[in-house]
Structure formats: C-alpha cells, structure tokens
Amino acid sequence: MRSFLLALATSATVLATGVTPVAASEYRYCLQGEEFAGTGDCSFTNYQQCQATASGRMAYCAANPDFATIPTIRVRPHHR
C-alpha cells in the first residue's frame, strides 16, 4: 500500500509540473515579446523556425528556460 501511494504521489507531481523534460528537449526555443506572457511561445525546435515567426513583430527568440534545467547524464569512461 505504501508503494502504491508513493507511486501515485510521484505521478501527480510529474503531471502537475507542466513541461516534461522530453517536451522541453523537443522545443529548444521560445518566442518572446509584448504579445507573449511568461516564457512565451515555446513551440520551436530550431532557431530558424522561431526567427521566421518573429519576423515583422515586436518579438525575439530565446532559449527555452525549461530546456536549460534538464540534467544531462554523463558517462565516465571505464578504465581497466
């Protein structure tokens, strides 16, 4: 029972955070400006897509702040 409640609490926490690391890693750039609240429109996989959408508007592109906080896993070389 304790394991079930722990799994349930963990699942609720993950779902409540909004952006998952997988989603953030797919969308690396955000369109920001006066028209966009918070972190902006983070639906761009590359900088060129973001720049094309920002063209002609009072907007600019920046790195997705959620992407910057994703931990990277480093593998140490195995020496014998």
Question: How would you portray this structure in words?
Answer:
The chain has helices at 2-16, 21-26, 47-54, 65-68; strands at 29-33, 36-44, 59-63. It is built from 4 helices and 3 strands, in the order H-H-E-E-H-E-H. Residues 12-17 have low confidence and may be disordered. Helix content is 41%, strand content 24%. The longest helix has 15 residues, at 2-16. With 80 residues, the chain is α+β, with helices and mostly antiparallel strands. It is elongated.
Give a quick set of tags describing it.
80 residues, 41% helix, 4 helices
The count of β-strands is: 3
Query: Secondary-structure element order, as H and E?
Result: HHEEHEH
Summing up helix and strand content along with how strands pair, one would put the structural category as alpha+beta
Q: Roughly what fraction of the amino acids lie in strands?
A: 15-25%
Give the C-alpha Rg: 18 Å
Short overview:
The chain has helices at residues 2-16, 21-26, 47-54, 65-68, and strands spanning 29-33, 36-44, 59-63. With 80 residues, the chain is of the alpha+beta class.
Question: Which helices and strands, and how do they pair?
Answer:
Layout (H helix, E strand, L loop, with lengths): L1 H15 L4 H6 L2 E5 L2 E9 L2 H8 L4 E5 L1 H4 L12
Antiparallel strand pairs: 1-2, 1-3
